[in-house]
Amino acid sequence: MMDIGASTLIIATALLALGWAFIQFLTITRISVESSQRGAYETVNADDYAEDEYEAGATTRRLIEIYEAIYEGAESFLRAEYTYCAVFVAGFSVVVFFLVAWGTDWDTTRGFLTASSFVLGALTSMASGYLGMKVAVYSNVRTTVMAQKPGWTDCFNTAFRAGAVMGFALCGLGIMMLYLTMLAFRVHYYGPEQWVYLTECLTGYGLGGSTIAMFGRVGGGIYTKAADVGADLVGKVVHGIPEDDPRNPATIADNVGDNVGDVAGMGSDLFGSFAEATCAALVIGNSIGVSGGWDAMVFPVIVSSVGIVVCILCSFIATHIRPVRSEANVESALKMQLISTTVLMIPTVIVAAKVYLPESFEIKATVGNDLITLTPIEAALCVIMGAVGGLTIGLITEYYTSHSYKPVRELAHSCKTGAATNMIYGIALGYKSVIIPVVVLAGVIYGSFTLCDMYGVSLAAIGFLANLATGLTIDVYGPVCDNAGGIAEMAELESYVRDKTDALDAAGNTTAAIGKGFAIGSAALVSLALFGAFVTRIRNASAEAGDELFLNGVNVLEPLTFAFLIIGGMIPFAFAAMTMKSVGLAAMEMVMEVQRQFDEKPHLLDENPTERPDYDACIAISTKASLREMIAPGAMVIFTPLLTGIFFGVNAVSGLLVGSLVASVQLAISMSNSGGAWDNAKKYIEKAAPDSELEGKGSEIHKAAVVGDTVGDPFKDTSGPALNIVMKLMAVLSLVFADTFYAFNSGGGIFNL
Description:
This protein has 753 residues and is mainly α. It has one domain. The chain is built from 21 helices and 2 strands. The chain has helices at 2-29, 49-103, 108-147, 153-188, 195-239, 251-284, 288-297, 299-321, 327-356, 376-401, 406-414, 419-432, 435-464, 468-490, 495-544, 559-600, 615-629, 631-648, 650-686, 700-736, 738-743, and strands spanning 361-364, 371-374. The chain has a two-stranded antiparallel ribbon. Helix 2 packs across helix 5 (195-239) and helix 3 runs parallel beside helix 5. The chain is globular. It is found in: Endomembrane system.
């Protein structure tokens, strides 16, 4: 009966999430793309009606033209990117099959199931990214239309619902596919003693999701920032035209990039985190199934399921209970979503643990042969520590990246002495912002490990992602508002429309930074949990062979382990260098193309030009550059642990994973927060009056801030967020191929050093 209860809960909540996403989408579809005749705040006289009717029709046609251009650009890029990904997935699935089968004494069933789950994870990740792009593009222009109307509620709710479609659809789809895969594998591995093999085969699901996330994050990040940096340098810095001005040839590519990078890339990234965290918890805790049954073993999936219900209930706070009625309400409404879902998750998780976990259950210790007896409340506390730790890191991130607080305001004032001091302050701010999040992470890791060993760490990672639907809602909200503002600028709507979308976007920037803090923190815990699962699998393989490898944990003082720990610490820096340079190269191409068009068509810079820029040329540059440049960093992250394990063995892989984790989390936080702070410092200066201390838009102070924002773009939207995937992908790949690594000279690798 309890077994049916768990399965019913998980499948029902997954269907609920998909249904809720569909309802939100239907609400958005009721908004027609039709511009207001004049401004919503203007009086329309009867004599002007015919002229207004004509102007409204022309504006509507322009809105549809821009929307279609952004949609076609995003569609063509994702189609090209996913074609590359599909070829890679098809080829690498064969590698997964043969290496896993060979590493398990030619157990072709395990090889086939692991490869199948890898393909399923990749397809689900691609579907999530594509769905997010479609919904965001569909909603951008409708947010612009609603911003023409009086008040703030309608335009905020449109963007918020667009994010909800992505957030709930991704969570529902991810949980549904993962759990159905588990049930399918259970047909073969039907006994509790065999579920260890079920969970090991399931790790391919996390690998598939993370692989697509890597290419999506890197490719989309290079695309969006090449266009953004190119548009800023030539447009704002050289020629002094506003951001998203229709005269700038790169402006369509910039708006396309928001959808393929910030929406599709982020969706794949967080889907990967969910899949990997769940897989790690299941691998470490599979022995719970022997004593506690299926319900107890799938407790990590149950946490994600009840999180969906919590997120749906809390979404009513933003749209109905406390709707946004003024600019001041926007940021607080988004922040309230994170706080309310975290608070409500605490009693929900405790109830779920008491219902679905036995009064006591045992797991094997990661170090030694002891069995640890756990209780439901201890498991629930680990999840709660993760959820509260995630919220804490998010709020600290807000403090360092929002212009409502001292650090960003100091950064803005540093621009008074030029771009150099802005750069110095911004980099220092990023480094300083690492301190508290790392201390929080350390506390969560220590507390959860003390309570429930490495299983507790994996549950804390699940806790970080318990309100994933809300986190994704807020993450997608930002790019939707950004695009809405860009569309308003390109369609040359009244200035109050752009002012409104800018205010919505500014709040979105801050909450996006909070979302990145969540993503980085969860990635760190997920990576550590995956490392624990890797050690567990090596121990199991070693015990089956009559050996005692990793019985007493990983010895960092082993020369090979320590050597590769240092090499692992280098990987994030090499990856960041490659992706930053890729953005720089693509941006240089974009700058030259934009300047070429201005030189050949000087009338483009007229106040009311009679010709349009060649937007397609800039879209083509971003597309080609991102597809070309995403291959090398992705290949480095995928093949480094694979080749290390094959040639140098499991001790070397252990050092590599720990070094990569420690360096990635520091670098990711500092880069993301520096970039977010530079962006909001620029926006803070733009809000200043011309006769104020910061002199406002177009001043020399503003130009210095634009330089910082331009440098910060790849920091916060390309390299920084992609480092999440570096640590996760290396760890989950090592977990999938753990038996293969052990098969080479009992874990010593081909060289057997």
